[in-house]
TrEMBL record:
Recognizes and hydrolyzes the peptide bond at the C-terminal Gly of ubiquitin. Involved in the processing of poly-ubiquitin precursors as well as that of ubiquitinated proteins. The keyword Disulfide bond does not apply. Belongs to the peptidase C19 family. The active site is at C337 (nucleophile), H780 (proton acceptor). Keywords: Hydrolase, Metal-binding, Protease, Repeat, Thiol protease, Ubl conjugation pathway, Zinc, Zinc-finger. GO terms for biological process: cell communication; protein deubiquitination; proteolysis; signaling. GO terms for molecular function: cysteine-type deubiquitinase activity; zinc ion binding. The gene is ga23291. This is Ubiquitin carboxyl-terminal hydrolase. It comes from Eleusine coracana subsp. coracana. Residues 608-629, 678-697, 735-758 are annotated as: Disordered. Residues 736-749 have a biased composition (Low complexity).
């Protein structure tokens, strides 16, 4: 006890703001349930496994630890216990879905290092400071638990300030039960009923030009009538949530139940407590309504729980379960199967195995990590690599294997990107079609920043390649620009399907059955079968660019663009664009098979560069005009965004309005302004100056935080004037300084070719990731990886030998260069 008293100055009483890591080791996947339990540093509140706690003592000198051990209780018979109906969209919280965790007995003791002297807890003999500190650690929500709750509890809609006193015109409008059509056009879908005057109008025009015609929002701007409800989503079944099971949540389903009511002045979906009364004003009986359209979020429930799911997961197959190094599963955290599938593939490639396992020990990564290793990308990548590849956590259990839970890794990789957790309707559906392109860019970009200047150690180098684009305007003059990327997104040309006759016969049969009120069985469905070669050809073929500003003609025109590889990467990642956007920000998944061979040769796709006799487009605008020069977007940024699927013209606007600062800044601007009524207006000559003015008070606020004024201005311009986003921008761009040029943080699109791997264009398929469901935010991801000459399926924590390889159903394909 005297020894403990001599170390009291090393014991801290946790504050509410402290992050307490008592669920998992910060450098391994050991937990209180592991053989040696978990040791919580009573000064830093970091957790360590038995093999690693001495590293903490050596690094910090903190000697006092709370040792937590959990042992599973015998399972109780719960077969007769009724399931409690959930009332809250959450997991593991009161009123939410049960996480069905088994119960554990928990024991505690105080341990003093380096001798591992243990003292019992609770004990009245312990110093009061120690008792108080330990009690607070035990009672506090752990850092992991706080993160889980924040991620899973859906934002509750607020009651609109306009709902209780909503003006409703006595204009005699009676809304019929069916046959709705926009009052200003012929649209019959994505219709909104204005609750003040009963006008039925179409929704917003989407980012890609499809969708409605903006008549509903234009009506609000003219009348200022604030609330509208989406027709077809109205229902009196307020208990619909009870029909959702925890199994569905396992497949990442996010719901917003009941009707879609939108407040234009509040710019958000809201709750209208008097909705029934407001609807009855227009002759609508709320209690008798049945939904004919899904709410925007309920569409995410419409998953393909049929043949595709069974085939991709190889359900019903007698597969051999696999264990050991390289065959460790990743437990589903509730919304993590996309990340898990990608990481299983990444850590099957040589660059990642070498960087974070073979050449990086856990102890070395911890020794060089900052005070909080849970926030260090290198530490968490190393932790994940050792967790997957060591085999330590790949032991057989009754259910197969538990797998590891990469919560700390997920938190680190998603930091500074709050848009990934946003439930805004437009953002959710945008990422449904663009998630692989954007998330891969962010993931690789984060790793690039963490490994600056060392191309041999940087695992991203093997995936990086340069695309060279050639643009020719009607003047005959051309321009070339290069951009670097990690993934090639490919459109799927359905007209190139090789089974057109079968498709025509099936469509005729389906039409006849529809007339008879019959449904086609899943076994009878015929899907288009498109060769991968056709998808690659669509990328390299000519593409028209509307609204291209030609510096030769000093006007906007339509140009022609072609693209090719300047360099071929060691690992080629192909993203199949299986999602297109429908009305109401609803992603439609193309129901298509891709014929993918085991080997491909894309040598013919290498770019040829500037050819003899070609005349280049002049840089900037012509000097003959006295008028201000047209603002010019950085083509590297524009091309990168356009390759993700954004509208090309919108990409130009985003680049200009962020001063060509970089891809990430332009993408953030685009996500924030895609609903602007003037998003499709032509770019004016003074656009850059007018859009980029910043509020002086916002500048001074950032300056008061200690940032330099020119850095503050640059951050505000890159963040649309939002102080919080500007602060995040500064912290995520430490290279920004008063002497930095406006494009200092630009993705190195014109990287020196010598920094890139290059070689043969011949590749072999080594992995693919498949998606099940109608939206990337609804469904499930599974990885298939070629290991040791055999295909294995990685389905969350399940790892097994593949029996029936669904190679034609991939969403992402990974190829490795064939050595010559």
């Amino acid at each position: 006890m005297d020894l403990l008293r001599s170390h009291l100055h090393k014991v801290r009483i946790p504050e509410p703001t402290n992050r307490i890591h008592k669920d998992e080791c910060c450098v391994s996947f050991d937990t209180p349930r592991s053989e040696g339990g978990l040791y919580v540093d009573m000064s830093s509140f970091l957790g360590f496994g038995r093999e690693h706690v001495e590293w903490s003592y050596e690094k910090t000198g903190n000697p006092v630890y709370l040792h937590i051990v959990q042992r599973r209780k015998p399972d109780a018979d719960e077969s007769d216990r009724p399931l409690k109906k959930p009332t809250l969209l959450a997991i593991g919280v009161e009123g939410g879905f049960s996480d069905q965790e088994p119960e554990y007995d928990e024991t505690f003791e105080i341990v003093i290092l380096p001798e591992f002297i243990s003292l019992p807890f609770p004990s009245v003999d312990l110093p009061e400071k120690v008792r108080l500190a330990v009690d607070k650690v035990i009672l506090a929500e752990s850092a992991d638990r706080k993160q889980q709750l924040a991620a899973w509890v859906a934002d509750k809609k607020k009651i609109s300030v306009y709902a209780m006193d909503l003006q409703q015109l006595d204009n005699g409008v009676i809304v019929p039960p069916t046959g709705w059509k926009c009052s200003k056009c012929e649209k019959t879908e994505n219709l909104w009923l204005n609750l003040t005057d009963g006008m039925i109008l179409c929704g917003r025009k989407l980012w890609d030009g499809s969708g409605g015609n903006n008549h509903a929002i234009e009506h609000y701007k003219e009348t200022k009538y604030p609330l509208a409800v989406k027709l077809g989503t109205i229902t009196a079944d307020l208990e619909a949530a009870g029909n959702c099971t925890p199994e569905l949540l396992h497949f990442e389903i996010f719901l917003l139940f009941c009707s879609d009511v939108f407040s234009y002045p509040e710019d958000d979906s809201i709750e209208d407590p008097l909705l029934a009364q407001h609807l009855s004003h227009f002759g609508i009986d709320f209690s008798s309504l049945q939904k004919t359209e899904m709410t925007t979020a309920e569409r995410e429930l419409d998953c393909n729980t049929n043949y595709d799911w069974n085939r991709i997961q190889e359900s019903g197959k007698d597969a051999e379960l696999l264990f050991g190094p390289g065959y460790t599963g990743l437990a589903n955290l509730g919304n993590s199967c996309y990340m898990a599938s990608i990481m299983q593939v990444m850590f099957s490639t040589h660059p990642f195995i070498s960087r974070y396992f073979e050449k990086q020990s856990l102890k070395a990564a911890f020794a060089t990590s900052p005070a909080d290793p849970t926030l260090d990308l290198n530490m968490q990548m190393t932790k994940l690599g050792h967790g997957l590849l060591s085999g330590k956590y790949s032991a057989p259990t009754n259910e197969g294997q538990e797998g590891i839970r990469p919560r700390m890794f997920k938190n680190v990789i998603a930091s500074n990107h709050p848009e990934f957790s946003s439930m805004r309707q437009q953002v959710v559906f945008l990422f449904s079609s663009l998630m692989p392109s954007i998330s891969s860019y962010i993931f690789f970009d984060r790793l690039d920043q963490a490994n600056p200047g060392n191309h041999e150690l940087n695992p991203c180098t093997g995936f990086k390649f340069i695309i060279e684009e050639r643009v020719q305007c009607p003047s005959g003059k051309v321009s070339y620009n290069k951009r670097s990327d990690y993934m090639l997104s490919l459109n799927i040309p359905l007209h190139e399907a090789i089974n057109k006759e079968e498709l025509e016969a099936f469509n005729e049969k389906k039409a006849a059955m529809d007339l008879d009120g019959k449904e086609v069985s899943t076994e009878e469905i015929v899907r288009p079968r498109v060769p991968l070669e056709a998808c690659l050809a669509s990328f390299s073929g000519p593409e028209e660019i509307p609204d291209f500003y030609s510096t030769a003609l000093n006007s906007k025109t339509t140009a022609t663009k072609t693209a090719g590889f300047k360099t071929f990467p060691d690992y080629l990642v192909l993203h199949m664009r299986k999602f297109v956007m429908e009305a109401g920000w609803v992603p439609k998944k193309l129901d298509v098979y891709i014929d993918v061979p085991d080997t491909i040769d894309i040598s013919h796709m290498r770019s040829k560069g500037v050819q003899p006799g070609e005349e280049m487009l002049p840089e900037g605008a012509s000097g003959n005009s006295a008028e201000p020069a047209q603002p010019v977007a950085n083509e590297d940024i524009v091309s990168q965004l356009a390759s993700m699927g954004f509208n090309y013209f919108h990409c130009q606007k985003a680049a200009i309005n962020t001063l060509n600062t970089g891809v990430e800044e332009a993408m953030n601007w685009l996500l924030s302004h895609m609903d602007d009524p003037d998003i499709d207006d032509p770019i004016s000559k003074d656009q850059q100056g007018s859009e980029q003015s910043v509020d002086e008070s916002s500048v001074q606020t950032l300056v008061s935080f200690g940032f330099q004024e020119d850095v503050a201005i640059k951050a505000l311009k890159a963040s649309g004037g939002n102080i919080e986003k500007a602060t995040d921008w500064i912290f995520s761009h430490p290279e920004a300084s008063s002497s930095a040029s406006a494009d200092s943080s630009t993705n190195n699109a014109k990287a020196d070719d010598e920094d890139m791997p290059d070689g043969s264009g011949r590749y072999k398929l080594m992995a693919f990731v498949s998606h099940m469901g109608t939206s990337t935010h609804c469904g499930h991801y599974v990885a298939h990886v070629l290991k040791d000459g055999k295909w294995a399926i990685f389905n969350d924590s399940k790892v097994a030998a593949s029996v029936d390889l669904p190679k034609d159903m991939g969403y992402l394909y990974f190829f490795q260069r064939i050595s010559s």
